[in-house]
From TrEMBL, chain A:
The gene is feoB. The lineage of its organism: Bacteria, Pseudomonadati, Bacteroidota, Sphingobacteriia, Sphingobacteriales. Belongs to the TRAFAC class TrmE-Era-EngA-EngB-Septin-like GTPase superfamily. FeoB GTPase (TC 9.A.8) family. Gene3D superfamilies: P-loop containing nucleotide triphosphate hydrolases. Mg(2+) 2 binds at T25, G26. It comes from Solitalea longa. Mg(2+) 1 binds at N22. Probable transporter of a GTP-driven Fe(2+) uptake system. This is Ferrous iron transport protein B.
Automatic annotation (TrEMBL), chain B:
Keywords: Iron. It comes from the Bacteria. Pfam families: FeoA. SMART domains: FeoA (SM00899). This is Ferrous iron transport protein A. Gene3D superfamilies: 2.30.30.90. Residues 1-72 form the Ferrous iron transporter FeoA-like domain. InterPro entries: Fe-transptr_FeoA-like (IPR007167), FeoA (IPR052713), FeoA_core_dom (IPR038157), Transcriptional_repressor_C (IPR008988). Signal peptide: none annotated. GO terms for molecular function: transition metal ion binding.
Amino acid sequence: MSEQLKVALIGNPNTGKSTLFNDLTGLNQKVGNFPGVTVDKKTGIAKLPNGHSVEIIDLPGIYSLYAKSRDEQIAFEVLYDRKGTLRPDLVIVVADASNLKRNLLLYTQVADLNIPVILVLNMIDVAESNGLKIDINKLSNKLGIRVIAVNARQNKGVDDLKQAIANATRVATQLRTIKVEELAPELIGEISEKFPVSSPYEALQLAHQHENLSSLSTEQSDLIETLEQKHSFHSSSNQAKETVARYSFINDLLFDCVTQDESAKGETFSNRIDKVLTHRFFGLIIFVLILFLVFQSIFTFAEYPMSFIETAFLNLEQWLSRVMPDGVFTNLLINGVIAGLSGVLVFLPQIVILFFFIAVLEDTGYMARVTFMMDKLMRKVGLNGKSVVPLISGVACAVPAIMATRTIENWKDRVITILVTPLMSCSARLPVYTLLISLVVPDQKILGFLSLQGLALLSMYLIGFFAAIGAAWVMKKIVRSRERGYFIMELPIYRMPRWSHIGLQMYEKAKTFVSEAGKIIIAVSVILWVLSTYGPANKMAAIDNKYETLAKTAGNDQKLLEQEKSAEKLEASYAGILGRSIEPVIKPLGYDWKIGIALITSFAAREVFVGTMATIYSVEGEGDNLVSVRQKLSSAKNPETGLPVFTVATAFSLMLFYAFAMQCVSTIAIVYRETKSIKWPLIQLAYMTAMAYFAGLIVFQLLK
Amino acid sequence: MNLSELTIGDCGTIVDFTDQEMSVKLMEMGCLPGELVKLEQVAPLGDPIAITVAGYKLSMRKQEAATILLKR
Ligand SMILES: Nc1nc2c(ncn2[C@@H]2O[C@H](COP(=O)(O)OP(=O)(O)OP(=O)(O)O)[C@@H](O)[C@H]2O)c(=O)[nH]1
Ligand SMILES: [Mg+2]
């Protein structure tokens, strides 16, 4: 087989690269209307009209080749690493046609690197409705390359693009844009002699970026440094000169190729929306109202599907217990796996609704406005406006949220954001909160429409948010940095969300949630069931004997005896021993050893809590009486005192514990990967555990 | 005057920068000497600001805006 052509999508942030990638490959890469949606490279295969297939690489957006943040660095490295496996044979520069001037800056840089290139003018629909007339042929002639107008959102022009990829040559045809050599003649000359560069601009790039390039050895980098000193090369003034030259080239070009229909100008629709949504006074009020609406809907809309899933699982359990033979396997299936699964799947509707709202916020362009409005507040506590995106997506899951911090240029801002993001209440906590809230908060409406349980849930999210802010403020004082922070960000125009895309995203997220949670829960419930059914043989036998004699004694209630027996056996089992061993530590927080077992299993993932509770209470409970997890827990009694286990004090203490504790192996792993050091995940684990413990302790002691 | 001193709705033309390192970043984003800028919005907490430049909307902190010198 001949080697597949590699085609990279390069362009400014938010120009529709990922949308185009999806059109070309049929994949479903995440798209959103704010800069910095894509933070990692992703490859897919596109079929061309001539039957060949090529590899397409989607990359994070960059404004110029001078990368400032981690995500930009990834895009730059793919372009630059001449020996790398991802080195593209062809680059498609995706430009926003409605904003050509700024977008073409990157084009001129890529063109001067002497890689074969095609220019895509995406969002041609927006350009047209803004009254811009672009002479594509003229542009194409002046640049010496293929230029293709595309509307990626509606899949228009994509076939032309595929044809152009098929026709592309392996040699660069573009005309030079600026006289690169004049920027630093001697230095470029000398680097070109000593390094195998394919263009003067590549030599200049080496001079600017040698410190960031992993493909250069230390000696090579030092050599360039010496040359720079010899020719007294000053990087930032040289960059300034280059940028000015490039823009003057672009201005001339656009003057010839683009005309603006003046009648189409005037106050834009987007601007008018902004006047309201970021209004000095109403802006923040609207933001709070939107959040409020989200949490109210999570509770109200999810009610019916949730009770439907709950009954469906109960029926399944009942049916299985009728048709399956009694025995160990049936017991494991019903009390272990199905009880555990139903405990979490019941919450799927809430999670889907949450994802829906986040997707709408991202797809309309409102997310960028939240960033804009919150920057000052965020800066006060040592974060950055750009931290808002990770914080908000942390409400869904901390793992992609921590990857989203790559767009934050300043290292200190980024580390602090990474450290506090897991405090945001992620969707895995939702089942825990909802379950505990439904146990202790009455299902009432205040003022006739506000659900009290919804309010309680909203407060849990607010607690998570303020904890994140508070923790950031403390860390700002501790983490040292000399770098200067700044905030320069594009505000994209508002767009109608693409419902089909949102629907697809929700479906994919729900699918991942079910399969991921499903796998963990099945594994944990099997292990847990084994641990809670078996124990040290002599002890278990002693209990069997004891109850055998008791059963023979006349006048004893057989059913009660059965229950007491299984309770005692659970306590003597391996799981019981485990729970008992940590009981002294958690007792002051109001938890018994059964909750202790759940705390231990939740270290794999938080949502396991519900399943664990379900499994434990099923093992213990009256076998023939099938009820939902909720009912099982609310009727649970402390055998010593006879009082309910889940009092208000215990439930709130537990909720706070789950709000703060770092119980997620995947998050620890991703923090390690993103910070490249074991120090940060350890610090995070330590401070979050301490916070969780003391918050739980204080709340329980105050409320009990 | 500098960009942070504009009032909402006002325009100015960029003439120079006071900070070289920042100017490189700003120029990449289209803020070049000779460009017309218009102050569109100020965030509810008074900072950052949003301007229209080169046909799109750009937000930055007042601290960054203060490095951009304008003439009316
Ligand atoms: N009107 C219109 N909107 C488009 C077009 N292409 C993409 N969009 C929208 O533009 C926004 C950004 O699209 P993305 O594909 O996420 O952009 P990106 O270049 O991958 O962005 P980053 O990953 O942040 O660099 C989304 O809201 C898209 O729906 C188009 O041709 N016309
Ligand atoms: Mg993208």
